[in-house]
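WARN retry 2 of 3 for item q-0093 after timeout on previous attempt; input resubmitted unchanged.
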Amino acid sequence: MDFTRPLVRGRLVRRYKRFLADVILDDGREVTAHCPNPGAMLGLAEPGAAIWLEPAPSGRKLGFGWRLVELGDGHLAGIDTGVPNRIVAEALAEGRVPALAGYAAVRPEVRYGERSRVDFLLTGPDLPDAYLEVKNVHLRREGTVAEFPDCVTARGARHLREMAEMVAAGHRAVTLYVVQRTDCTALRLAADLDPGYAAAFAAARAAGVEAAVHATTIERRGVRLAGPLPLAP
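OK item q-0093 returned
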């Protein structure tokens, strides 16, 4: 996935009301950008952080959208929670998700469970339907291990329970965690931040829900799904 316009660099002044960020661009302009991330963004929204913005199409209320954060040592993190679904869709079309190889058709946003939509439903000859949920990951607190979630997500726990129901009905169910930062080598659950999600994850795994983790390649020109990463204990 390539960004549609070249990114411009700036320094974060503050992030507020979840979806707004005041930024001083490197050319001295002060702008307010859209922050496409409703989460806590722990460690990624510190005042003074070097960030990258994408100019918005004409007619938009805000002239920029926040896309990347510099992490140091040349590493980057993507903060747009809409990106993982887009790059997973590209990777599925190109056959670059080993855990989901062999499926002939991929449909996005399919209703399932009581009141949910699965991110992707994969179907193919002689294969059980695969219900795929994609999760955005960008929290790292120590070492090179990414963590999920970065705040309480009752919705995420509900999805895990509904995915377990799909397995009970004879289908496959896979949760794919996309690590949207380039300085991590594994993923673990942040059970201290959301014990409810950790419990739901353990129950879903016991019920047959599969978990996959993938890294990303992040550059100023765009983001691409990279290879698998392990789950850390």
